[in-house]
Design brief:
The structure holds two protein chains of two kinds.
Chain A: H1 8-17, H2 29-33, H3 44-52, H4 56-60, H5 64-67, H6 73-77, H7 84-97, H8 105-121, H9 126-137, H10 147-152, H11 166-176
Helix pairs in contact in A: 1-7, 8-9, 8-11
Chain B: E1 2-5, H1 16-28, E2 32-35, H2 44-50, H3 52-68, E3 73-75, H4 79-94, H5 96-106, E4 115-117, H6 119-126, H7 128-134, E5 143-146, H8 156-159, H9 169-176, E6 180-181, H10 195-198, H11 200-216, E7 221-224, H12 227-235, H13 237-243, E8 252-254, H14 255-262, H15 280-286
Parallel strand pairs in B: 1-2, 1-3, 3-4, 5-6, 5-7, 7-8
Helix pairs in contact in B: 1-14, 2-3, 3-4, 3-5, 4-5, 7-9, 11-13
The chains are: A mainly alpha, B alpha/beta.
Amino acid sequence: MENNHVHPTIQKIINLTNQDPANCYQCGKCSAGCPVRDYFDDAPNRVIRFVQLGLYDRALKSKAIWLCAGCQTCSSRCPQNFEPAKFMDALREIAAEEGIAPSDKNVQKFHKAFLNQIKNNGRSFELGLIRDYKLATGKLFQDIDAAPTAILKGKIGFTPHKIKDTKKIKSIIDKAVKGNTK
Amino acid sequence: MNFGYYPGCSLSGTAKEFDLSLKEVLKYLDTDLQEINDWCCCGASSAHSASHLLSVALPARNLILAKEQGMKEIVAPCAACFNRLKVAQHELKTDDHIRINTEELLDTKYSDGINVLNLISLFQQIGLEKIKSNAKVDFSKLNVACYYGCLLVRPHDILKFDDPENPTTMEEVVKATGAKPVDWNFKVECCGAAHSIAHTEIVENLSMKILDDAINYKANVIVVACPMCHSNLDMRQKNIIKHNPGRNKIPILYLSQLIGLSLGLDHKKLGLDLHFIDTAPLIASLSENEVAV
């Protein structure tokens, strides 16, 4: 779907999602049903509108793209079969690739800490994830009340389950992830 | 019966009672699970937030391993893993561009052909009759709210499982145990998912609405099939009540735990002591006439 008249950001969105934001006719159904819309700065259909109008910077700097929970309620209800959840994924990836500072740093730091565990162990390691997230955000005392119960019940292990092929997983992640989510 | 098994990361950590109870129940129902050797994380909510290619490549690696190890059908009890595996399969099948990039990244050829089952479709395959005929505990006074969350049913075009707005398959499984599913409003509403750590306040607010609605419709227990939903509704419940006083507690069980209870299996082996919200009052009430609310 390469087209010389298409803006590179639109082309990237199309490549990542196999859908053209121009198909959205702004009915607002996505925003009406979005469970996290109350926490967004811009409603989902507004973020799509920014892109339709060529205001890519506004869209990529929107908090909404980081606060989207990926529940896909919007995608399953869109009368145009557009998938706003996929669109939000693409904007997060493009923002990171273009070095745009995430408008919600906590979410970005969480994903970074999560991917780091997979990079090191091949699997998620909850204690390591929480440690890396706390160090990155400085929120050292968060969930300090839940931690003892989780540890006592053996739900949080002290050592990661490492897979044999961690080297391969590390190289897959390093090659696939670009920009500041790395 | 024999199935390949993709436990996913949560089931060996914070959701270990999901793994324990599933294995106990399947042992009782003469079903074997063969774990995929050297499986890796499916990427969950973080891979697709960072790289579309990675969100396909990680599940693809596991699907390739399953095939190499002679599996035809694999069970992914975690709703998020089920979702990522199915979405990756779909993209690899329908998008040559992503398939070629994935193969290049993994340095292996991908070929389709693994059937991925979620927790509910697994029990459908085993047969609900088998659960019904083996049920030993009287559940006739037990009201259950079946909570599907997002990832079991959406995106419907790809998962092709149940109905995305009003699914009913979990209710059928619950009916087989003899319990009564309640009709309620929040079965496919989002609990806030992976925002549990980065935005606890969002998760508490969304989860509170789900808990309130279940209690409002007289449920004694909420049953789930997703570790993320479980941790948000169970682990976060204490603070939800603390921050919004005047609320009752409601225990959250995995569907496999509810089935195990109905089969009369050992509570400890089902991991019923591993929850944040105590399940003991509910269990005690099952042997009495009245079920605790």
